[in-house]
Design goal:
- The protein is mostly helical and 466 residues long.
- Helix content is 47%, strand content 6%.
- It has helices spanning 3-13, 61-80, 98-107, 137-141, 150-159, 168-183, 190-196, 241-244, 270-281, 290-293, 296-300, 312-324, 334-339, 367-372, 376-385, 387-465, and strands at 115-117, 133-136, 197-201, 209-213, 235-239, 343-345, 348-350.
- The strands form 3 sheets. The protein has a 3-stranded antiparallel beta sheet with strand order 1-5-2. A two-stranded antiparallel ribbon has the order 3-4.
- It is extended and about 130 Å long.
Amino acid sequence: MTEKEALWHEFEHGVSQQGSSLEGNPLGDIPSARVVSQTGAGPSGRVTEEIDSDDVAEVDSEETHVLATAMATDAESDLESHPGEGMLLKNPRSNVVTEDIRLWRYLYGIPLSVEIRVPTAHERVDWVVPGWVAIYELMLKDGMRFPIPKLLRDVCDHYEIAPSQLMPNAWRVLMSIESLIVRHGVDCELGEVLFSYYLKEHDKDKGRFKLIARVGRAPIVTCLRTNDRGWKDRFIFVRGDLVWGQRGPGGVSGYWKVTSRDFNRALPSGLIAEERTRQLLDIAVGERDYRVSLSEENLRASRLWAFVEERPEAASAAVGKSQSTGSAEPSPGKANKAKGKYTEGGNSIVVPMPSDGSVYSDPSFVKDATEALLLSADRKRLSEIGPVQSAEWSCAHAYQALMGWTHLRSQITAQEKRNVDLTASNATLRKSNEKLAAQLEELKTRNEELSFNNTCLVEQNAKILG
């Protein structure tokens, strides 16, 4: 078996990675599985990413062909996309912009061979976009890389749904189990997953599905989150051989659809599934915490990141962390405080600010402080993605901040106007209440007079009758 075949076999079957190495890019001659430098830009279906010769040593004819193909199919995909079955009631558009794509390739290790398409203004995550599959950024933040993990793909294949129809905790469970079975040498397939869990459609968000632990069965993965917010409008479309891996998509749907499968039914597995599940549950609870299972260290030790190249700064950061572990955090000296410099040590940065300074009268004194706020890791990351992309990304987010501030300012102005109107209304109501109180007192006085007159009349009648 060649080294290329061995790496594919490892991803598909979970063979130990010890002794294997991505050094030298052994898959460089396979366009669908090439591991490229994260500092280089690449093609995305709807975005032409600029390739800087200083960042990428060589762009061969295959990469140029991928870029040309992506640009050529862009207009065609726009014409073919359509709403499909229109499953979602709350269906936000994607707010991903072109400036995000190159940064995503770097942050999430997306190879050049995976084409990325930013959704158009009218496309939604449940739309049919032939040849493309929707992926949420939260999936990538949680540690999903390409190819799409085997258990996640198998669950989607079995239930005839798209990966993006799963709720966040569902894909966290599946990826965590896949991380556990490789690191602890436990066999686990779809049958074992469905022995402990079943799929359930979301009560309010129809079309999305949760993975629920069966009654009487202990959950394999622990400490799942319950407060995911703001992720449904951060999605893209992707395509390429590396998206699904060597086995391809199989029966997995690339788009959302209504499924007729029985969600609660487990696969016939018997004692084997029970024994394998017990082996997983025997792993320490702390190890089964999804945050531990999906940590970068454990993901790299599993098959989930088999085709992700390790960033150079990861090793240096680990060395720096180990060197600082156990050492006392240095305190800034008096000379540094006097000059307004900052001291970096341990896990903190001290930025001294003169108490008698003023940003309005002398803005220059904050120069050193603001430079200190640019952390070394962020400085290196921005340097690697290039000045143009850094400026574009910063400009886009600064514009978003400006729009947010403008919206907030308009809301504050409107609220102030409402407060003035309410104050005026309260004053009017107060006057009305005072007027009503005066009228009530007048009515009481008249009522007393009428009672007195009535008493007099009763007495006069008594005298006449007497």
